[in-house]
Amino acid sequence: MENLEDKIIQADSLDILEKVRVELFGKKGLLAAEFVKLKDIPGPEKKAFAEGLNKNKVALQKIFDNRYEVLKSEEIEKMLKEEAIDVSLYDALTKKGSLHPVTETMDKIIDYFVALNFAVESGPMVEDDFHNFEALNLPRYHPARDMQDTFYFNDGGLLRTHTSPVQIRTMLECKPPIRMIAPGSVFRRDYDLTHTPMFHQVEGLVVDEKGKISFANLKSILIDFLHTMFGEVDVRFRPSFFPFTEPSAEVDISCIFCEGKGCRVCSHTGWLEVLGCGIVDSNVFEAVGYEDVGGYAFGLGVERFAMLIHQIPDLRSLFEGDIRLLEQFR
Ligand code: PHE
Fold it and tell me: If we measure between CA atoms, which residue out of 42, 58, 47 comes closest to residue 1?
């Protein structure tokens, strides 16, 4: 019996174990041969002999089953190892991509406002005079048009100089209340360290019944937004002028490079200008046929945010498509 047990335990592959099985449990196997002996056992001892045989058979079967399980799982393990596909094989040949810093910054800005239930609106990049200027309280020959060096087409169309025309389009399409942002590219005839002919803005507009929206609402949301983007900076609102808002303000944060002490980036003022905003001018509501409403609007340049966050000195480098630059933002 011990001898048989060893045979099972020493089988080191499923093939060998199968041979052992036939040898022990097969029709002509060792156990069968033992059972054949039964007929020669004298009557009184038959029962005990048969019981003994059965016990042994059950015990051996159990040992066999255990061994089978062990060998089977070893075999599966081995198969998994040998047949596994090495998906990392071509890793050395491929390069991981990354988001462009402008896209990444844009996404961060959008995420902030979407979390506050702002809808994301869009409009065409080729605009007309009405949506880009006229309806925004910038009539023809208004001197403030010079603030925005415009690319014109021969037919009088133009490349939008800001995302503010999306305010107009949204108000013409929807009834108040409105709570929207409009991210997108805009175009101006400008090219230097901090200006490119194409750049990105995010516009914001909130409109509700007259008396519901105040400058305090605008201030609190923008301060929280700037803290989210730049950390614990000081924020100040400076009176300014935009034709489509009255009163208007430009918003500065304390310089994130010198912490307000004054450096080259902030022109030794300690402040960085990051936003324009204000209470929507009533002439704008009149142009879109809105009555008895009030609201605020703001607009910001995404590249400016990206440059400050990533300390990029030359804005133009963002649009040259040089992979060596982009790789630094992985
Ligand atoms: N449209 C303005 C610009 O491009 C920014 C702005 C938007 C200012 C909304 C006030 C309100 O400079």
Answer: 58
Nearest CA to ligand 1 atom 10: 277
Residue 189 has pLDDT above 70, yes or no: yes
Cα 242 to averaged position of ligand 1 atoms, centre (Å): 7
Asked if residues 148 and 188 have their Cβ atoms less than 8 Å apart, the reply is: yes
Mean pLDDT value of segment 178-184: 98
119 with 263, same domain: the answer is yes
Together in a domain, 132 and 256:
yes
Rounded distance from Cα 182 to ligand 1 centre (Å): 12
- Secondary structure letter of residue 317 according to DSSP: G
When mean pLDDT is compared across 10-14, 30-34, 71-75, 211-215, the lowest value belongs to 30-34
Whether the predicted pLDDT of 19 surpasses 80: yes
Return the best residue to mutate from 244, 250, 284 for the ligand 1 pocket (most ligand atoms within 8 A of CB): 244
278 and 220 fall within a common domain? yes
Instruction: Please tell me the distance from the alpha carbon of residue 19 to that of residue 135, in angstroms, as a whole number.
Output: 93
Same domain (yes/no): 68, 105: no
Q: Is residue 88 part of a domain?
A: no
The answer to whether the CB of 270 falls within 8 A of the CB of 217 is: no
184: pLDDT strictly greater than 70: yes
DSSP 92-123: GG-------HHHHHHHHHHHHHHHTT-EE---
48 belongs to a structural domain: yes
Q: Are residues 226 and 302 in the same domain?
A: yes
For ligand 1, the distance from its centroid to the CA atom of residue 298, given in whole angstroms, is: 6
Residues 180 and 224 in one domain: yes
Any domain includes 245? yes
pLDDT digits (tens, 9 = 90+) for 64-74: 999 999 999 99
Same domain, 231 and 171: yes
- Total number of domains in the chain: 2
